[in-house]
Amino acid sequence: MRDTLHRWATGIAHLALSAGLVWMGHGLAHAQASNATAPASPAAATPPSAAAAPGTASAAALYREHCASCHGAQRTGGMGPALLPESLERLRRADALKVIQHGRTATQMAGFSSTLAPADITALAEWIYQPVTPAPAWSDADVRASRVETLGAKDLPARPAWKADPMNLFVVVEGGDHHVSLVDGDRFEVIHRFASRYALHGGPKFTPGGRFVFFGSRDGWITKYDLWNLTVVAEVRAGLNMRNVAVSGDGRWVMAANYLPRTVVLFDADLNLVKRYDATTLDGKEASRVSAVYDAAPRKSFVVALKDIPEVWEISYDPKAPPIYDGLVHDYKMGEAIAKPGYQGVRRTPLDEPLDDFFFDQDYRHVLGSTRPKTGAGDGAPTAQVVNLDARRKIAELPIAGMPHLGSGITFAWNGTTVLASPNLKGGAIDVIDMRTWRTVKTIPTPGPGFFLRSHEATRYAWADSMMSPTAKDTLTLIDKATLTPAATLREPGRTLAHTEFTKDGRYALVSVWEMDGAIIVFDAQTLKEVKRLPMSKPVGKYNVWNKINRSEGTSH
């Protein structure tokens, strides 16, 4: 352990990109040291693009000298995050270059502009976007070995150590410096702030009583955090590039969706590995990245979308789940009439096209998912489809031009029916669709394409951002849910205004100023007046405990 800690100390001065492991407690950090120095596979071969320029070292040599001690020999992460093309797909190369040059504020990532030649920094920035050969693996043994827990956490009192309504608590993810803030939803004050893993993604997920929350990071880490006692409980690395995590409605299970390796991984609530599902076709001949996994609590199951295979999976955590029959049940020659256990088994729904992402209707019978544009077909427009989980087939195609993104759509009552409203990611509009007929009832114009649409049962408005617009990213459009017309706008001139979340009673709306020197703005949801402003470092999302665990129709689930 002494040698391990010495290597850690040496590596701190040589981080190559964003801070990876931001300390989450002294005891936990010591436990993670042994994982960061676990034996790695052979180092990757140098691709032609990383060849050395005259007078410079090769990118591979530069990486080994300055970066591998923290980011791993195969760039799979350690103290620092994974530096794989899959992990960096949302980080522009120009931004990666700046991080290597100047470091990242409030992290252990130091800049190299004074110690490396510009050509060397450029070579490193190119190198981390090249595929690792051979492709890194992450086995069940790796998953188990990565797990750590905080001693004594299970014996902490079952009551909040702070004075506030635990059901009106907001968990705010600050992407600017990789922290999480806990905000009292009555007084709008920060109760606590703590460091998180790098690049949390997919939104935190809560246990039914609201005490524990699970975070997932892009480089595969799942963190279980005790909100009442303000401490990490346990962590495990489910994969090398993870999309999101889901928590079962009974709080007993956690499931992770991975891009790399191509797996779905089931854990118990203490983050012990239970089962790995390889994301393949039934015959095992084709593998897929996993787009997303969500909990369908009323069905007692997880629902999984595959990015490269046209299937939706339903994995039940109900011990009384009916048996599963794959294929044609009368084809005895193929053994397809032999039932598989329904409990924790994969029930496959075949589709014409894979789903990128999805969400549910309010009774959880239907999956509403986006489909990528078909290459070489027509104008290559994206589509969205409706899949009935009981009939196990697609029943409709949604007539919307933009793709529903992670939790971007909402549902609400309108004119005696229930409608779905979703941002149009290709243009400035909100498409409203009757969920009885699956037909468009109205397309509502907005100043530009947006990412999030949010509301609450107790408010008359749906709040839509235009954060993807270069000219209207500073504008929120409030849509009257009764008339389906724009009723008001809110602006933060020159800044990105996005991601609304409501207090549990719907009286106040919290909105992110999505900037490094950003803030949470609290608005009165009736008068639309600003009530308070809390400085934050790029608050990418905020999540109200009550709304989440009660599956409010106006927020992501």
Automatic annotation (TrEMBL):
Taxonomic superkingdom: Bacteria
InterPro entries found in the cross-reference section: Cyt_c-like_dom (IPR009056), Cyt_c-like_dom_sf (IPR036909), Cyt_cd1_C_sf (IPR003143), Haem_d1_sf (IPR011048), Host-pathogen_enzymatic-act (IPR051200)
Cytochrome c domain segment(s): 54-132
Molecular function in Gene Ontology: electron transfer activity; heme binding; metal ion binding
Keywords: Heme, Iron, Metal-binding
PANTHER family named among the record's database cross-references: DIHYDRO-HEME D1 DEHYDROGENASE, PROTEIN NIRF
Protein's name in the database: Cytochrome d1 heme region
Lineage per the UniProt record: Bacteria, Pseudomonadati, Pseudomonadota, Betaproteobacteria, Burkholderiales
